[in-house]
Amino acid sequence: MASSWITPPTRTELIEDLVSGVDRYNPSNVSILEDYLYHQIRSEEYDCLANLAILKLYQFNPDLYNPDVVINILLKALTASPLPDFNLCIALLDERPINTSLDEPDPLPQLLPVLNGLHDLLYRCRFPTFWKTYRSDELESLRDNYTVEVVGFENAVRAVAVRAVKAAFTRISAERLGSYLDLNGPDLEAYLNDLGWAIERSNSVVVIPPNPDNQIEATVVQESIKLPQLAKIISHSALKA
């Protein structure tokens, strides 16, 4: 997983050169990286390091700053939870110079607390509260203007919940899992079928396939002490006595 985070298999050779080479700080390349971000948005791909490179260029060159690009970067990072991607992005915005040359008011200061709140809910696995907040009237503007453009955003959030459930459960009620995924009825069944998770019809319980995270295994610790070492310990104790 670490290797795919550092170098996603979908990253092109051109982007690899921009992200890994000295040219990453060349402001003339920002449009290439921005185009790559919008490719990620359309194709459900994700490249954190390439997106961080955009934020670093904005930090060094405030005149390049594009709030819509920043918001889209944060939305992509949001669905990487529990990885630290979102906080890495925020760290590059904390001391961002104010760009007064924008034609319209900057939407980021208003949306940033909202996105921080959504990230906190995902990170703490409070999935039902996340969906309630996300579906609220207060976040209608976020949905209509931003997340609607991020292809597969809601399924990417569901993938965050799935990762948490796989790590913590071997069995979970369909109702509870549905509240985590914001799905019910045939939609929930279709989603679980795609995952390969079975539902026990008799009690509406979803069976989570075994994986290294949800299997409890006893750990046996053995210590090997050789006879000469034991003799030294005994003699040392005898001298103290």
From TrEMBL:
Any GO BP annotation: formation of cytoplasmic translation initiation complex
PROSITE patterns on file: PCI
SUPFAM superfamilies (UniProt xref): ARM repeat, Winged helix' DNA-binding domain
Location, primary (coarse class): cytoplasm
GO molecular function, one term: translation initiation factor activity
GO CC terms: eukaryotic 43S preinitiation complex; eukaryotic 48S preinitiation complex; eukaryotic translation initiation factor 3 complex
The PCI domain, residue ranges: 46-224
Transmembrane region(s): none
Localisation per UniProt entry: Cytoplasm
Keywords, in A-Z order: Cytoplasm, Initiation factor, Protein biosynthesis
InterPro entries: ARM-type_fold, CSN8_PSD8_EIF3K, eIF3k, PCI_dom, Transl_init_fac_sub12_N_euk, WH-like_DNA-bd_sf, WH_DNA-bd_sf
Entry function: Component of the eukaryotic translation initiation factor 3 (eIF-3) complex, which is involved in protein synthesis of a specialized repertoire of mRNAs and, together with other initiation factors, stimulates binding of mRNA and methionyl-tRNAi to the 40S ribosome. The eIF-3 complex specifically targets and initiates translation of a subset of mRNAs involved in cell proliferation.
Family, as annotated: Belongs to the eIF-3 subunit K family.
Complexes and interactors: Component of the eukaryotic translation initiation factor 3 (eIF-3) complex.
Annotated protein name in UniProt: Eukaryotic translation initiation factor 3 subunit K
Top-level taxonomy: Eukaryota, Fungi, Dikarya, Basidiomycota, Agaricomycotina
